[in-house]
Amino acid sequence: MSTQTTLTQFIIEQQRNTAEASGDFTLLLNDIAAACKRISHTVNRGAITGMLGSAESENVQGETQKELDIVTNDIMVDALNWTGHLAGMVSEEIDDPIAIPSEYPKGKYLALFDPLDGSSNIDVNLTVGTIFSILTSTEGVDAKLSDFLQQGTEQVCAGFVLYGPSTMMILTTGQGVNGFTLDQDVGEFVLTHPNMTIPEDSREFSINMSNQRFWEPAVQQYVEECIQGEEGPRGENFNMRWVASMVAEVYRILTRGGIFMYPFDSRDPSKPGKLRLMYEANPMAFIVEQAGGVCTTGRQRMLEVQPTDIHQRVPVILGSKNEVNRVVSYHQE
Ligand code: AHM
Ligand code: MG
After folding, report:
1. CB neighbours of 17 closer than 8 A, spacing ≥ 6?
2. Is 166 found in the same domain as 37?
3. Of all residues in the chain, what percent carry a pLDDT higher than 90?
4. Is the domain of 169 the same as that of 33?
5. Where among 137, 162, 193 does a domain terminate?
6. By three-state DSSP, how is residue 203 classified?
7. Crossing angle for the helix pair 282-290 and 246-256, nearest 10 degrees?
8. Which residue of 245, 279, 313 sits with most ligand 1 atoms within 8 Å of its CB, as the best mutation to test the pocket?
9. Rounded to the nearest whole angstrom, what is the distance from the C-alpha of residue 245 to the centroid of ligand 1?
C-alpha cells in the first residue's frame, strides 16, 4: 500500500478532529480539487486548445478578459453549482454573486474564487493559478450579496492551486498550511509539503517597480532602503523578484520567505490597490498567517478589513513577519 497521503485522506483525517464535521466540507474540497485538475489540464495543453489570447469582453473591473479566464470560470461554476454544498458563489470574472440553479439543493458554504490568477502570464507560458476562499452562510437558502461581505477572519478554508512546472494545491483550514502536488499519473493530489512555514526574516522583495512614482512614502522608503543594500541603513544586500502572478509570489514566500507588495498607489482614486479583497487578498492572508507570516494593507490586518463590495480592491503587503512589520511601522511614522 502507498505511504503517500492523498488530499482526500488528509481532509477526512482533519475533519475527524472537528466535532461538528458533516462530511459536506470534504466533498466540497474534493469538488474544488476536481475542478482545478480540469483547469490544470486545460492550461497545460496551451495553444493546442486554441484558447490563448484575449476574449472580446471585459470583467466588472474593466479588465480585458482572456479566453481562458472565461473558460476556467465556467469549469469552476459547472463543477460546484449542482453539488448541494453551496449557497452561492462569487467569481472575479462575474459581476454579481452566482446563484445556485433552482433545481439543485443549497448547502451552507459560500465559495469565492479567482479562477485564473495572473492570466496576463498565460500567453508567455508562465505560472498561473486558482485562488479560493470558503465562508459559511445559512444552510438551504440562496445567499444574498450581503451574506458574502464577511471579514477574512470568518473563512473556514482558503487555498490556491499553482499551474507551474508541477501543479500544486496549498491549503489551510485554520490548522496550519499544507502543500499537495498533483500526481499526473494517477490524477491525485498528494501531500508533499506538510506544515509550511514562512521564515520570519528575508532579504528578498517583490513589487512592480514601474509603479514607484505612485507609491506612498512608507513603501518608497522601504524599497529605497532595500535597493541601497550594504551601503544603506539595512547594511545588507537584497534580491528582487516579480513574476506578476500572485500565486507564484506567495508560493515562493511560503518556500523561502520574502515580502510581496501591491501597495496603495495614487494612479486612480477609485482603486486603492490592484488586488481584490474577497478572493485574492483574504485567502492569501489566511494562508500567510497560518504559515507564521503577516498580511496587511499597511494600516490594518487584512483579515479584519470589513468588506463593503464583493469586488473591492485593497493594498496588499504580505510575507515574512519582520519585513512586513517594518513596512507597517513606516506607515505609522
Ligand atoms: P489578475 O487576477 O487579473 O490576474 O490580476 C492579479 C495579478 C496578480 O497575480 C499579480 O500580483 C498582479 O496582478 C500583477 O500585476 P502587474 O500586471 O501590475 O504586474
Ligand atoms: Mg487575480
Report:
1. 175
2. yes
3. 83
4. yes
5. 193
6. coil
7. 10
8. 245
9. 6
Q: Which of 322, 326, 318 is nearest to 200 (CA)?
A: 322
Q: Is the CB of 64 under 6 A from ligand 1?
A: no
Q: How many CB atoms lie within 10 A of CB 47?
A: 10
Cα of 250 from ligand 1 centre, angstroms: 12
Residue numbers of the domain that contains 128: 7-193
Span 218-258, pLDDT tens digits: 999 999 999 999 999 999 999 999 999 999 999 999 999 99
253 with 304, same domain: the answer is: yes
- Amino acid 193 reads H
What the block records as the C-alpha cell of 200 is: 520570519
Residue 327 is inside which H or E element, if any?
A: helix 321-332
> What CATH number is associated with residue 112?
3.30.540.10
Q: 240 vs 116, 227, 296, CA distance in Å?
A: 24, 9, 20
Residues 6+ apart with CB under 8 A from 128: 43, 116, 117, 118, 119, 121, 122, 163, 245, 247
**Identity of the amino acid at 79:** A
For 17, 54, 70, 89, 183, the CA distances from 37, given in Å and listed in that order, are: 27, 23, 16, 19, 10
> Is the whole model's pTM more than 0.90, yes or no?
yes
Distance, CA of 289 to CA of 321 (rounded, Å): 9
117 lines ligand 1 (CB under 6 A): yes
Tell me, rounded to whole angstroms, the distance of Cα 267 from its chain centroid.
Answer: 24
pLDDT in tens, 155-186: 999 999 999 999 999 999 999 999 999 999 99
| Segment 289-298, tens digit of pLDDT | 999 999 999 9
| Residue of higher predicted confidence among 323 and 23 | 323
